[in-house]
Amino acid sequence: MPVETEYFHCVQAALDDDGLHYQVLDTAGQTREWLSWPPVLPPTERWHHLPHGECAAPPFAAAPTDRPTTELIAWRFRGTCPPAGDGDAQTLLAGWEPGPGLSALWIGLLGREGRLGVLLSPAAGRSPHLWHGPALAPGEAFDIQVAIHTGMGPGGILWRRGQAAPWSSLIAASSWGAERLTWPRRWAVGHERRGPADRPFRGGELSAAWASHAHQL
Asked: Among 14, 93, 166, 199, which residue carries the largest CB count within 10 Å?
């Protein structure tokens, strides 16, 4: 592993009636990674609706970053996939800070096969890291959930089909995960930061909602 990512550590773990819990401590006693599994989220009918287009991020995005508290952020996307096209990227959700640079967070469809992808760009001037998942067929009606766990490292970018399905990590070659991400203050559903013509979703009836689970270490 890269030297800026790997570190000497110990792991504290517990298994009880609620599931598996662990935390990873470095030599200074700082918690660097953590997990309680399975994750706890409200039923999807209680998730918060997101309007199509640009909006302010939810309040959790303004939480202090000196101590990890937000454990899991999840989005539900429903709609109909576009017909087969030219492979241009299509946005389900983008998040960014005002100013130049790439969106810190991007969720959408990539390539001619419409493959689910997540891009994280936590540092200005650095290339984004890509996580990718299943391909969605042209014209397919979809109901998928994407989640970001801030304590799981590169395995913490997750997806599933519907509330009853198990979570799976998206595939990536990154040595880090959402622990480097500062939650962006502007979000957009259905297009990128420069407006409706910027990498728009070209399918139909896109709707989005979000939920979170907070865990104070």
From this structure: 93
What's the chain's average pLDDT?
88
Q: Which residues pair with 154 in a beta bridge?
A: none
Nearest to 188 by CA among 177, 179, 201: 201
Query: How many residues are listed for the chain in this entry?
Result: 217
Question: Do 90 and 108 meet the contact criterion of CB atoms below 8 Å apart?
Answer: yes
Q: 27, 33 in Cβ contact below 8 A? A: no
**Rounded Cα–Cα distance for residues 74 and 155 (Å):** 15
- Give me the residue spans of the domains in the chain: 1-38, 40-214
Report yes or no: 143 and 136 within 8 Å, Cβ to Cβ.
no
Residues 6 or more apart in contact with residue 126 via CB below 8 angstroms: none
So what's the architecture of 40-214 in CATH? Sandwich (2.60)
Please work out, in degrees rounded to the nearest 5, the angle formed at the alpha carbon of residue 37 by the alpha carbons of 35 and 43.
Answer: 120
